[in-house]
């Protein structure tokens, strides 16, 4: 009976996370529309922040509770599912295009951050420390990089948008107060939902003899990635590659810089060396994604863009399915 109750409450927590993210993205996107921000910038910032908010809710609670494996598992797992599952599904629905500028900066940054996370986490192996952890200093470094990333987006919008289609003007039909209420309600849902997910996922992990790392990498990571999946799938159906790609790349960057940065700034997070396997898998599929895109350029006059086609998308999807089965078995 306790397990059944935990499953019901866990599902309710995920529902709060998803609806909280939905309200947050809806309100924030409406506010952004008032300033005529492009789809790419919205995808890289407002949408990716909103869809990463469930990870923020879960990880801050997990950091306070001392569940380090959950913290790492959730972020690394979410980035794996973002890269393979979400882009895989979106790319199978509709081949996604990405600009050279976005690939060169945001794509390279997302890979560089995985390498940086490996370096910051393995203190014993690399720096002769007494333990492996993501310290408060490391969290500060990640947050500084995050602020520089936001400043870069705010001050270099023209190069990012130069290859993108101009947005169709949108009509704003509700007041800014409704948008603010939507944002506030979304944040409340994310915080409360994050606590419910954390508590019940840890309980189920112990009941079923599973480690927090595996629960974080699978159940929690998939659950907190559902907003990204829904957003990118809908964007692909509407043939909006900017939102679909920007959402995933931006979310991966936000997860490492903001989610892990804020979590480790609150309290140092110990690192389980078995998580290196997950980090190297994330690095491998991220590099594979870039190769798939780079090897498929498309020319539109003097403009060069790149495409993630359906077959490479299917390969990414199958890879994450195989990895999930491996973790569970």
Descriptive account of the structure:
It contains 12 helices and 5 strands. It is globular. The protein has 329 residues and is mainly alpha-helical. 79% of the residues lie in helices and 5% in strands. The model is unreliable at 158-168 (pLDDT under 50).
User: What is the helix fraction of residues, given as a range?
Assistant: over 70%
The run of helices and strands is HHHEHHEHHHHHEHEEH
Overall mean pLDDT stands at: 82
By DSSP, the count of extended strands is 5
Pick out the low-confidence regions: 158-168
Strand order of the largest sheet: 1-5-4
Q: If helices are DSSP runs of H or I spanning 4 or more residues, what is the number of helices?
A: 12
Sheet bearing the most strands, described?
Answer: 3 strands, antiparallel
Shape: globular
How are the SSEs placed, and which strands pair?
Elements: H1 2-33, H2 39-65, H3 68-93, E1 96-99, H4 100-121, H5 123-127, E2 133-134, H6 136-155, H7 157-161, H8 176-207, H9 212-237, H10 241-266, E3 269-270, H11 275-294, E4 297-300, E5 303-308, H12 310-328
Antiparallel strand pairs: 1-5, 2-3, 4-5
Helix pairs in contact: 1-2, 1-8, 1-9, 2-3, 2-8, 2-9, 2-10, 3-9, 3-10, 3-11, 3-12, 4-10, 4-11, 6-10, 8-9, 9-10
């Amino acid at each position: 009976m306790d397990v059944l109750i935990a499953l019901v409450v866990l599902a309710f927590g995920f529902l709060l996370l998803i609806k909280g993210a939905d309200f947050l993205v809806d309100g924030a996107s409406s506010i952004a529309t008032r300033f005529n921000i492009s789809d790419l910038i919205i995808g890289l910032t407002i949408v990716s922040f909103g869809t990463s908010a469930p990870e923020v809710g879960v990880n801050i609670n997990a950091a306070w509770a001392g569940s380090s494996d959950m913290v790492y598992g959730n972020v690394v797992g979410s980035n794996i599912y973002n890269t393979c599952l979400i882009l895989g599904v979106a790319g199978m629905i509709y081949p996604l295009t990405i600009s050279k500028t976005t690939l060169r900066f945001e794509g390279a940054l997302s890979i560089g951050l995985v390498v940086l996370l490996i370096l910051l986490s393995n203190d014993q192996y690399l720096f002769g420390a007494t333990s492996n952890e993501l310290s408060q200093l490391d969290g500060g470094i990640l947050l500084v990089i995050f602020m520089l990333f936001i400043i870069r987006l705010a001050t270099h919008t023209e190069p990012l948008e130069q290859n993108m289609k101009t947005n169709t003007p949108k009509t704003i039909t509700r007041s800014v107060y409704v948008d603010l209420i939507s944002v506030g309600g979304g944040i409340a849902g994310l915080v409360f939902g994050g606590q419910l997910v954390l508590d019940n996922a840890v309980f189920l992990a112990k009941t079923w003899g599973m480690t927090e790392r595996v629960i974080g990498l699978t159940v929690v990571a998939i659950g907190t990635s559902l907003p990204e999946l829904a957003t990118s799938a809908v964007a692909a159906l509407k043939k909006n590659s900017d939102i679909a790609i920007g959402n995933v790349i931006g979310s991966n960057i936000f997860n490492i810089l903001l989610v892990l940065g804020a979590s480790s700034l609150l309290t140092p997070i110990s690192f389980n060396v078995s998580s290196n396997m997950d980090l190297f898998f994330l690095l491998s599929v991220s590099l594979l994604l870039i190769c798939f895109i780079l090897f498929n350029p498309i020319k539109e006059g003097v403009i060069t863009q790149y495409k993630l086609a359906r077959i490479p998308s299917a390969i990414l999807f199958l890879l994450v399915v195989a990895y999930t089965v491996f973790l569970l078995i």
